[in-house]
Amino acid sequence: WLEYFPSKDAAYCFPCYLFTNKTSERPRVNAFVVEGFRTWRKVNSGKDCAFLIHVGKSPSSTHNVAIKCCEDLKNQSRHIDTIIDKQIVQEIVNNLTRPVPKHPRPRIAVPVDAIRWLAFQACSFRGHDERHDEQNQGNFLKLLKLLASYNEKVVEVVLNNAPKNAKYTSPPIQKDILHVISSNVRSVIRGEIGDAKFCLLVDKAREESKREQMSLVLRFVNKEGFVLERFFNLVHVKDTSASTLKEEIFATLSYHNLSIQNIRGQGYDGASNMRGEWNGLQSLTLNDCPYAYYVHCLAHRLQLALVSTSREVISVHHFFFLAFIINIVGASYKWNDELHAAQVAEIERLISIDELDTSSGVNQIGTLQRSGDTRWSSHFRSVSSFLRLYNPTCTVLGKIVEDGSTYSQRGESCVAYDLLTSFEFVFILHLLKEIMEITDMLCQALQKSQDIVNAMHLVVGTKTLIQNLRENGWEKLLEITRKFCNKHDIEIPEMSAQFTMSRALNLARSHRQQAHVTVEHHFQVDVFIATIDSQLQELNIRFNEHAMELIILSSALNQKDGYRSFDCDKICNLVEKFYPLDFTEQEKILLKCQLQHYQFDVINHPDMQNLCTIVGLCRKLVETGKSKIYYLIDKLLRLVLTLPVSTATTERVFLAMKIIKTRLRSKMEDDFLTNCLVVYIEQAIAEKISVDKIIDDFYDMNK
């Protein structure tokens, strides 16, 4: 601390010079700070040494305090700006970065993971009461506590140990983070589409709070040749008029920079406001985009063709009384328990007479399946379950007749039992089962993402099988029905006897001048053939090839049976008639040349053999690199694949909406509901988005 100034022959105290008042009233202090010390005779004079007196005996002397200050000054790691910088850096690390694995999770990464997990599982976020002393604070806070319980470092930075302004647990923060994840999912979908053509799949429904919601799904072919149907948005609409739906759809597309002129298909159900030729949504969209071809959902067509026409046959219409029987048996827990007990008894009886396999898992207790109004396959499941549980159902109906709680229940059960044990009901039950077995495959296929050409081939195959059933299935069906009746002690009428009709049927026949028919004629002509003919007629009308010229021309691209249906002229006609603006005049000429080379090259290529769909063909062209050589054919394939088959994806959106927006969550905001649905439905995309990306976007949203 002691320094010497040679020119003045004086000594100074450097710490005191820096840190004491230069105008101090103490002369000894001024001597070492201002004037300099020159009284050398007072040095080394024992306890009166001037240097020792300046230092002082007390730790709090002016000199010792200055020494401490000087040491602090030299220790840069203790400087206030360094301390603040370190603290700020640590806060940023805790708040905005995710450490490498095996390190503690930071303050915001843990809430991000919790929010994403809850969205994936369609769980609610908030609790009824989230106060600190509340036992159940809701899924979000409970999940944070669970994650924190596995890591002490996490405990130090979350919940009560986090700064009050950076807990990241409030409902607005939860919604912001979920919005960031949802926006990233949409950005990925937008990137997948790029500049490709796409198709609109739209449907509407009411959710739990009775508000009209419109779901928007985009169908397109990605760069790898895969057909994708991505859920893009859910929009609340004030009404379901075609103009309102169009405005909301176009607003969504415009917001995400998707050109309306790139729309190459529309897929809706058969409602008038959707498919109307003059003022329907498809018509209004065609006004702005003339090549956005409308395809009525094939699954809806199938439903209308099969269910509605089946009811037109009077005898078959009575069969749909089956739903009433199922409602009676499943009306209460008591009769459900009786049904289960009857099943157990039936299984034990069949095992005792060696008519049932006793392998593990083959004899399961089941329930009667209810049919739905919009899915033909649900009728097939209902009929199949009814045949399997026929004996137990009869047993339960008999008990309801005896022990029913009300006279109406007993009376209805008696009517149901009489109908159930009649030959006519059993015959129609097996007839519809045969028809449903044939059409079920088509129904299931239309629920999946199909190409339009393959879907139409399935329709043609289904009609052929139904026609074959009409021509060759009568004897077999009659034999199956007789065996079933003998097994269950049901009276079989004499087929050659005269059929006794009800008064209504007899009146109808008298108008048609038909009388004195036999039982066999009635069941074969009036039931069997009439039912099948009505189905075939409706299928031919609703899947009319003349009304679907686009689909028929597209079938020229089909590679089945060694490219037997491949036709260069039809393919060129397809481009000229339906996609004139997607190909320039020069490209139309070049396309014909490419088709000629394609016919000799690709058709004989070993990797191109045994392809079942044009989806597979499109992928193979990409995999083999031939999509770059025959780029115009690849372009045409993608346009055809963009055409919709069904609106099953939009209906799955509403099923997901029922899971998320329940009665307890009926006050969800529209944006929050939409973001939950996007993350829930497109989980495969959402789970690939890194936490760092989510945090960075969240930071940019609210700096």
UniProtKB/TrEMBL annotation:
Please give the organism: Cephalotus follicularis (Albany pitcher plant)
Top-level taxon of the source organism: Eukaryota
Q: What InterPro entries does the entry give?
A: AtLOH3-like (IPR055298), DUF4371 (IPR025398), HATC_C_dom (IPR008906), RNaseH-like_sf (IPR012337), Znf_TTF (IPR006580)
**Would you tell me the protein name for this molecule?**
Dimer_Tnp_hAT domain-containing protein/DUF4371 domain-containing protein
UniProt domain TTF-type: residue ranges: 1-86
Which GO molecular function entries does the Swiss-Prot or TrEMBL record give? protein dimerization activity
Q: Which residues form a coiled coil?
A: none
SUPFAM superfamilies assigned to the protein according to its UniProt record, in alphabetical order: Ribonuclease H-like
PANTHER family attached here? GENERAL TRANSCRIPTION FACTOR 2-RELATED ZINC FINGER PROTEIN, ZINC FINGER, MYM DOMAIN CONTAINING 1
